[in-house]
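Self-study notes.
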Amino acid sequence: TAEQAAGNDPLRPVQSPTSPSAAAPTPCTILYLGPVLDVLSVQLLNKSVETRSAGLRWLLHLHLKTPKKIFLVADQLFTVLLKTLSDSSDKVVLLALEVLAELSSSHAEAEITEIYGNQLQVSPSSAPVSSTASAGSPTNSEATSQPRSTEVALPVGRLMPSVLRLTDSSMSSMTKLVAPTLQKCGSTSRLTVYFTRLIVSLLSLFSTDRQLLDKRGSFIIRQLCLLLSPKDVFGAMAAILSREEDLHFASVMVQNVNMILLTSSELYELRRELKNTPTRESCELFSSLYRSWCHSPVATLSLCLLTQAYEHSSDLIRSFADLDVTVGFLTEVDRLVQLLESPIYTHVRLHLLEPQRHRHLVHTLYGLLLLLPQTGAFMKLQQRLNCIPNIAALGPPDRQANEDRSPKLISTINFDELLTHFKQTQANQAEASRPARTRHASKQ
């Protein structure tokens, strides 16, 4: 192959056998990616689903055969691939996600950095990008003369600035935010700079296209969790959403990803880890999710019930008295009550067999009951609570027994700090929603 002829060097010129310095007698073929990518990009816009699918399969094949070269030009592919996520065909969306996942976990980045190191520090203005010539077509001078030893003959070398764009401004700060978070959560995956860009771009896409979020958001995130580590995907989303400036979108997004976390079979292992919190990394993951889940009070409560943090969930219920109870809030509480009857919260229902050991859980569920109007959800939760002894007859709380029944490492989490963060986040949410309520009242 071309890479083998170049000594596994993606930037070193590939010499033809007619060159005086050519060592191999076997003919070599130079693959110019520019024209190929131009054609594939056009085919991704074709009306035929099969044609669009074929184009994406070609991209996967090229990445399999020449991962370093594809990684170097990945920046110009990202925009096209992200647009493909809005495709009406599930087949096309799945293939697009597969390509994006391959770029996000490619080993080519580490290999290129190891080989070239400081050579990657190229000024973005040093060469043109995204033109057919710069993407791979040989110019007349390249075709008629031998390149000097200080030049990069393969046009792929001129595409390096596209990768460097990822280190600019906000993307750089997001990368610095996401990487330490995943490390604390115990991530063992080798992720590239494109992983952060993928998550940031995906959230940005959902923010601007709420219809896509409503219709395909769950499907996209669940499939991404199959292609990449669910812990990495949710850890990155939590880190980014914790800094989201659009607080309304942050609240809507947290409600969506929380429902995915609680109900999707693809997230089973992540749910089990959060439920048992067997390691300090699991506790860090819980804390990271909690800080972004604070944009939605009911989502925060459901996370605490999942992780058996019953004492803190009892504190959260008390703090709900200071919140603005809207129709949307009550709808979320109704959904949580429905989920409490599902297999996801079997451990919560079984803990009601020992109310003396789980008084905080009982208090939490009674708090939910008193929040609800007397609807179907109210009746369902009341019937469930009627299955346990009267809370007044339980006697003094058995605190030591309660602690022994909780996951051992959950006590290492600073819940006072998390509760303060929750209250501050909700205060910010209330402040942000005040102008919207004022405008709505003025229209009436």
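Second protein, same conventions, sequence then structure:
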Amino acid sequence: RSSDLCHELCQPSDPPLVIQEQKTILSSVLAVLLAMFSSRTDQEYMEVEANLPLLGSIIQVLQHMENCQKGEKLPTKEGKEEGEQSSVYDEDCHLKILKDVCCEFLSNILLLLTKENVLGALKDGHLNEQRCCCAVRNLLPLYGTTVETFSKVLQQADQKLAEALENDMPSRRGRSEE
């Protein structure tokens, strides 16, 4: 269940390095949960309110992945030009799979959120400005429709946060179209 992911695999106090260690199991677990969510075979599981902690955990995984991407560089490898570095993230297909699954799952959840869900997620700490911006960074440009839909719901729930998100979105779109 999604509560296991939230409580066992994605502790808020975990350092970003945990993503490196648990990337295979996280991507597998999230892929199964995504399949359940997408197929709607378990109606109880489909209830968005019950999945708000999972929403927070998915974004936390994406935040940790961003931190890993920023902070971990490897020395040059043979065959690369001198002075060129590549990140662990860029070379790791398991992290790419994890990111893809997280983004797909995040997109599915965000499309179902209502104003009340967003208010609850904000109140309970599953969403905040940092997490919303992380979600947008990771979803654009592939999930532009999801971002637009989420922005409209967020505007209804928290206008100030929606404006902060809007300020981040144009710069993301401009970079993705280049």
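Instructor comment on the second fold: The beta strands are 73-74, 86-87.
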